[in-house]
Amino acid sequence: MASVIGKIMFQALLYGIVAVISIGISSLLLKGFFWKYVKVRTSFGRLFLIKIRTPLRDFFAVGRLRDNFLIFKLDKEERRIAINPEDKIFYRSLSVTWVDIDEDKGAICKTDYSTVTGFDAVKYNNLYVRALTQPQISSNKDKLFIVAVIIIVVIICIGIYLT
Q: Do 98 and 123 meet the contact criterion of CB atoms below 8 Å apart?
């Protein structure tokens, strides 16, 4: 009985090795598309597959939608593109939701392959993050201190000018 279970486990191990090798070969042949597709497919609609169209070849990225912004990473840089909810930019293929982006214009392609107005997505994201993380002067004590320092500097400049 033990030898039968051992043979079954050995056979399952060999099939597992064949499955891992075939998944590895298919991920190499698809040049990064396979694991991004699996990630989007297992997210149950939370993520989108983004096809970045260039003149020579298409790149793929995984994106998410947050506050009417399409956010994705390309070449380890986060990009943020504002989208209009009235535009028909999403379509379904291979059981996932897709968005096409024209890299030359920095614009989202509609489903009829016309583009919306584009802009630099990296620069826009940097400005957005900078605006969210800039320090704010919140207490009145700090504001009064800054005003007092400015007044003292002006009085010192006037004193230096008069002497």
A: no
Query: Across-strand partners of 97?
Result: 92
Q: Tokens representing 102?
A: 């024209």
pLDDT in tens, 46-57: 999 999 888 888
Q: CA 84 to CA 69: how far, in whole Å?
A: 9
Separation of alpha carbons 55 and 8, rounded Å: 52
How many Å is the maximal CA-CA distance in the chain?
A: 107
Q: Which residues of 4-18 are buried (b: 16+ CB within 10 A; e: fewer)?
A: eeeeeeeeeeeeeee
State both tokens at 99.
Answer: 């968005």
DSSP state of 113: S
Say if residue 16's pLDDT is above 80: yes
Distance CA 56, CA 11 (A): 45
pTM of the model: 0.63
Asked whether 49 and 36 are in contact (CB, 8 A), the reply is yes
Q: Which sequence spans correspond to the domains of the chain?
A: 1-30, 33-152
Angle, helices 2-29/33-41, rounded to nearest 10 degrees? 110
